[in-house]
Amino acid sequence: MKPSIVDVGALDGDYFSVSFSNGHLILFRLAELIRKPDFAALMKSKTFEKPKTDGEKLYWTTDGPSLYFDEIMKVAVGDALLKRTIILVEAHDGDSEIIDIELDNRTVIMFSLKPKLDEPLFAEVVQKRLISQTDGNKVYWQNGENLTLEEITEMLRTDNSGELK
After folding, report:
1. Confidence (pTM)
2. Cβ-contact 97, 79 below 8 angstroms
3. Count of Cβ atoms closer than 10 Å to residue 111 Cβ
4. Which pLDDT tens digit goes with each residue over 43-84?
């Protein structure tokens, strides 16, 4: 089951934050979508700065453009045709249970490791506050544990209990 959208917010320019019921949060840019007439018109209005959610989609007005979960994921992390690269990874504000993953399109994923803490090596990552690193395709730690971008994307798409603090 896909996670629901629990909160949305407008940031600078065409950046938005979307929090999901699985505990992950994505900061992403509308990018190419603002070239579409309905999004371009919306961006010029004050409404653009006040996104809403009904749990299923990010929207601004009931009769205007909206983005459902799969569309948000495509814009933020790409799809099979558009592979993204991880350019930076670090603990979120010093919290080893949450890592910030920045992609080449400037999307930032605040990724909760809580659903993985029943696995010994992930528990060690959090307990010992191991520093996360990337080779562009995966996040890895010195204890040998790693998550590929495909695994991260799959976890983003799954409703689990990784609630962010």
Report:
1. 0.89
2. no
3. 26
4. 888 888 899 999 999 999 988 899 999 999 998 988 766 789
Distance CA 62, CA 4 (A): 18
**Hey, where are the domains in the chain?**
5-77, 86-156
CATH 3.20.20.140 fits 5-77, yes or no: no
**CA-based angle 102:113:91, to the nearest 5?**
45
Tally helices (H) and strands (E) across the chain. Answer: 4, 12
Under a CB-based contact definition with an 8 Å cutoff, are residues 96 and 130 in contact? Answer: yes
The angle at the Cα of 63, spanning 36 to 14, to the nearest 5 degrees, equals 40
What is the C-alpha separation between 17 and 8, in angstroms, rounded? 5
SS3 call for 4: coil
Strand order through the sheet with 57-59: 52-53, 57-59, 66-68
Q: What single-letter DSSP state applies at residue 128?
A: T
User: Which residues, given as ranges, of the chain have pLDDT below 70?
Assistant: 80-81, 161-165
For residue 93, give the amino acid letter.
D
CA distance 1 to 56: 12
Closest of 113, 118, 151, 150 to residue 132, by C-alpha: 113
